[in-house]
Structure formats: C-alpha cells, structure tokens
Amino acid sequence: MDQKKGTVVFAVAAVVMTFLVAVTSMGIAMFTAVTGGVLPGGGCGGDGGIGGGSQSIGGTDWNAEQTENAATIVNRVVQRSLPRRAAVIAISTTIVESQLVNVGHGDRDSLGLYQQRPSQGWGSPAQILNPVAATDTFLDRLVELPGWASMAPGQAAQAVQRSAFPDRYAPQEEPAAALVDQFWVGPDNPVPGPTGAPNVQLASSVYACPDQGGAGVPLAPSNIDPKQLPPGFTPPADPAQRAAVTYALAQLGKPYVWGAKGPDGFDCSGLMLAAWASAGVPIPAGTVNQKNAGTPASPANIAPGDLVFIPGSLGSPSNPRHVGMYVGQGLVVNAYDSSTGVVLQPLSDWADEITHVRHIAGPAGQPAPDAALAEAAP
User: Fold this and answer.
1) Which Pfam families does the entry link to (predicted)?
2) H/E element, 325
C-alpha cells in the first residue's frame, strides 16, 4: 500500500515538473519573441547605437560595440551596391581577426577590425583604425578576386587576408550571415558586372536605432565663431593629442550624419573615433562605448583630446548620448546635430551638463583655463 502511494506521488510530481518546465520554456520563448533577443541593458533605449545595442543574434550574444561595427560594415556594402555575400565575408573576417572590436594591437603591426598591417600596404594607422575606411580597403581587395562571390566559405576571406591560419574563416560565416540578416535592407544585389557599373539599391538606412539626438545644449551667444578656429589658437604640444585635436578642428562646418565616421560627415561619436584614429589611437565606436574608453578625468582636470559627455537631447546623466572633444583653451568641438553640423563651443556652456570625462592619450590634464575666449558674451 505504501509502495503504491509512493508510486502515485512520484507520478504526480513528474507531471507537475513536466508542466512547470513547459510553462518556463514557453515563458522564455515569449520573452525572446517580445524582446527580439535584446540583452539586459541593450536595445535602442539601453546601450543603443546604430547596431541596436547589446543583443543575441543567431544564438550568439553581441555587445553594443560589436553590433555597431557589424552595422557599419553592412551599411558600407549596401552603399557600394555590393552583394550581401560581401558583407558576410567581411564580417566573418572581423569576427576571426578582432571579434568585431576596433583594437590597437595584434600580430606585429596589425591593427583594427581586420588586423590590417600598415607595413603591408593596407593604409595608414588612421585609415586602418577607422572602421569605414578599413572596410573599404577590405572590399576593394575582395572584389578584385575573380569569382569571389561563388568561392567556398572562408576561401575569399583567406585570399584577401593571406592568414597563417586559413581554416579559421569558414566556421564564422554562419554567425556572420546572421548578423548580416539582422541589418540588410532590401533585396540582394547582383554581383557587379565587368563594367563596374553601380547597381540600384534601396535608399534606406540599415541602422537598427534612429538618430539618438543632438547636443541639446543651446548655442549661447558668444565671442566664439562656432565654425572657425579662433585667431591665435595653439594646438597641444603632445603629438597624439595634437593629431587628434587638429583633425577634429579641421572638420568644423561639416555636416552631422547619423552613424557617419567621416570623411564627409560625422555623428558625435564618429568624429571622436576618426579624430583619435588620425593619431593612431583606437577608441570604440558609439557614445555609450566611448564612455568607458581610456581613463576617468574630470572637468577640473582636463587635457586636450579628452572626451566630454553630456546627456544630449535624448539621453540622461546615467546614459549620456552626446560626446565632444576638449581641444584646449576652454573649447569643445562636437558634431552638434543634423541641422548644425560640427561646431566649436565654450566648455563653460556644457559645464552644468557634463556627466563623464575620459582621458584617451598624452599627458594628464590640468585645471581648465578660465580664458576669455571660453566665456560666453554677456
């Protein structure tokens, strides 16, 4: 009798457990369907960026920097009217070479997403450390290969990269294809003909998130011309800081373009990335990722080239959406918004809004000067 009761109890427990597992599995499936694979802290309302922030795609978890770089590559392939296959090959290469992170180190003088080497004719460090320019160089070499679009998985990537480990690329084509599927817009493009004539592509952005807003700080009346270098401006003495600051200031007046990293337009974080790339210093793509670049600093102890973060029009103190560069003499340069472009502002205009300051390279900062040219006019 006791044995029968035990059997019945065990059977009932088994049914209950089966039911709970089914409900839990259903809940997980529903959560995944509702969130679209967004990871905690990710998505357009979280760590955002053009790639949609941290998320699970094709069974692999990617952070915001990785999805931003993937979206940048896909967008460049679309802009060049190349087939989807080109994006899969490019992304599978970067997964192998850098895990889709814009790194400043590698084998010998290898740099960037693709681990391209300046000494082997891949371009200057400034080009290699800019994901757009590096992708263009990779694609230029890819499309020169006869029959590249029909090569076996990994073969075209190896033909471009000439790696000592040729078998690494093919296994990454599946996760690369999932990333491309996430961002690709419109139909596939045919393989370009021998004439090299451009193909028609839908005029639509591949970016996962809408523009996440401009500076949100009014351009107050000032004795600073926002689109001109002030007379007598002296760039910093440190070579890396001078290169980054000089590059950023050379972009004054250029348009703000969401997701752009130069040379014809920039968003706020794209200008920072391109400026420091010009100095041979890699920083992540995207404002939220750049918030953790380098080392902490403060407005009271700031150096030329430091990144200055404010909430912007759509951010918050804990999740700033806008970044500029302190260039010295009490000034900050930034890609302000889509109607204004790249401008100079007094750092004092930002003072009440600053959430983070990050020191990237060169000597640590000194207290910011209360220079006359940094003061807003009465």
Assistant:
1) NLPC_P60 (PF00877)
2) strand 322-328
pLDDT in tens, 311-328: 999 999 999 999 999 999
Residues sharing a CB contact under 8 Å with residue 164, sequence separation 6 or more, in sequence order: none
C-alpha closest to that of 94 among 121, 120, 67: 67
Least confident segment among 18-22, 34-38, 108-112, 314-318: 18-22
In whole angstroms, what is the distance from residue 74 CA to residue 377 CA?
A: 45
Residue 35, token pair as written in the block: 């969130």
- DSSP code of residue 99: T
User: pTM for this one?
Assistant: 0.84
| Structural domain for 332, as ranges | 239-374
148-183 burial, b at 16+ Cβ within 10 Å, e below that, comes to bbebebbbbbbbbbebeeeebbbebbebbbbbbebb
How many domains does the chain contain in total? 2
Residue 20 lies in a domain: no
Residue indicated by tokens 């972009």 = 251
Count how many residues are written for the chain.
378
Residues 152 and 252 both lie in one domain:
no
Q: Between residues 155 and 366, which one has the greater pLDDT?
A: 155
Between strands 295-297 and 356-359, the pairing is antiparallel
How many Cβ atoms are within 10 Å of 342's Cβ, its own excluded? 24
